[in-house]
């Protein structure tokens, strides 16, 4: 399984607009995506009000590529999200059984 960690920093003043998108669009989308085993959304905290994250567990690399394309190392973003986000970071790991 693949662990995909996706972090974003929101443009100043866009926090509320992004929070609405995050809760109403992004979380349901990822939870309903074929190949996603589990989703752990991380909302902004008081000490970092512009930072949001997703930890997604994907069944395998083929499932991830089916969703984002062959270049899975590039952050996949919804067009509605593009104007709200200042910075994106994506990382991938092989999931280790606990």
UniProtKB/TrEMBL annotation:
Domain of life: Bacteria
Short name of any one Pfam family annotated for the protein: ABM
Protein name from the UniProt record: Uncharacterized protein
